[in-house]
Design brief:
The chain is mainly alpha-helical and 263 residues long. Helices cover 76% and strands 0% of the residues. It has helices at residues 4-24, 26-45, 48-56, 62-94, 97-103, 110-136, 146-173, 177-183, 185-189, 208-212, 216-228, 235-259.
Length: 263
């Protein structure tokens, strides 16, 4: 315990620093919130009837499409959060604070842990706020039990953690802040190429493998199953494998870059 206490204390200090920086730079958090909310309102009130009619092959049912859309929007919120993390880490690297931290008598891993935990907390808070807007426009999850709601929250946190470690590695590897934002762009695009807006079966045949064999589609389908009571099938363990694989890759990539000689 004596060896763990300093590490926990240092990690808490870095987490607090990260949250203070987020408060001083609210634009990074607002960007994560605004895009999912705008897309939610756009697809509900502008495209909702047309999209629902196209998916069902019959009459328009906006309420049914809202139920289909919201899980994808929630995962899209998670996908947008790591870009801010990559930018924040790159700022620390270019401003020299990372080099200063290496010379201080603190636990070496606490710097990265502070970034990761802070980013995951902001992502979860953003999901809650976007979910509140979704409820306001008509989303209901009457078939989900308390255990399924808890599993859904755990799923969102797991996906956020995995992609945050990838974003930390991108921030450490980027030569400047602008490059960090550009490098994280694929993480924001992936949800658009998933089953967030329409089922994979409704997509062109050549595009279906792109939507199917990526981490967001099984995560979205798992979240739909938890919130709407539909069948999940193999999507839950595919999602866990994606998250564990990406999280492990991001962790070792980020730590190896952090421990190298400062540039």
């Amino acid at each position: 315990m004596s060896s763990l206490s300093p590490a926990a204390r240092d990690s808490y200090t870095m987490l607090r620093r990260n949250l203070l920086h987020a408060r001083r730079h609210p634009s990074l958090t607002l960007n994560v919130l605004l895009m999912p909310i705008v897309l939610l309102l756009l697809f509900v009130y502008v495209f909702g009837d047309v999209m629902s009619a196209g998916i069902d092959g019959g009459g328009a049912d906006r309420a049914e499409y809202i139920a289909y859309l919201v899980p994808g929007i929630l995962l899209m919120t998670i996908g947008g959060a790591p870009a801010g993390t990559a930018v924040s880490v790159a700022m620390d690297m270019t401003e020299g604070i990372m080099a200063r931290f290496r010379t201080m008598a603190i636990h070496r891993g606490c710097v990265l842990i502070g970034h990761v935990v802070g980013s995951v907390l902001r992502a979860v808070i953003s999901v809650v706020l976007v979910g509140a807007v979704a409820v306001a426009v008509g989303f209901r999850s009457t078939d989900a039990s308390a255990l399924e709601w808890l599993a859904a929250l755990g799923l969102l946190a797991l996906v956020a953690t995995a992609f945050t470690w990838i974003a930390v590695g991108m921030g450490l590897a980027s030569p400047n802040v602008e490059a960090a934002g550009n490098n994280a762009l694929p993480l924001m695009i992936l949800p658009f190429l998933s089953s967030a807006f329409v089922p994979v079966d409704a997509m062109p045949g050549w595009f279906q493998p792109v939507a199917e064999y990526q981490p967001f589609t099984p995560a979205i389908e798992t979240l739909r199953g938890l919130l709407l009571g539909s069948a999940i099938g193999n999507d839950w363990w595919i999602t866990i494998c994606w998250c564990l694989g990406l999280g492990t890759l991001g962790y070792f990539w980020a730590t190896s870059l952090f421990h190298r000689d400062p540039r």
